[in-house]
Amino acid sequence: MSESRPVEGNFTPDGARFAIVVARWNGGITESLLRGAQRGLQRHQVPEADVQVYRVPGAFELPLAARKLAETGRFDAIIALGAVIRGGTPHFEYVCAETTRGIGEVALTTGIPVAFGLLTTDDEAQARARSGDDSGNKGEEAALTALEMISLFRQL
Asked: Most buried residue, 23, 27, 47, 61, by most Cβ within 10 Å?
């Protein structure tokens, strides 16, 4: 019996087009996530012309914008970036849960990969640690996820 080889994506863009949707709320954090995503795509030779950035008011608006972008047929993947930092009310739980559910639903209903770059942290220090210029920037990780998923889908 021959051993089957797993099918995996790689980080070769091959003309792929990306939409990055960025929440303006917690802008210092989300701008760092955006820089990380752009850095990740640039490191893998994705031309700037193949990346379009869209801004939305907050994390809750990410799924709807991602869905509209996916439905245009112009993008091979969407990268959703936002930051929700816990406060003293239940608002954190509502926004995190619905945004997470919505992003997943967009990917499942459209068939377009939507990379999850939403930080859900207890405080600003945790958010900064996950969005800094060093390794561990979740925006960069989301960009690499998008690249890998496009490659995988092209092999299916």
From this structure: 23
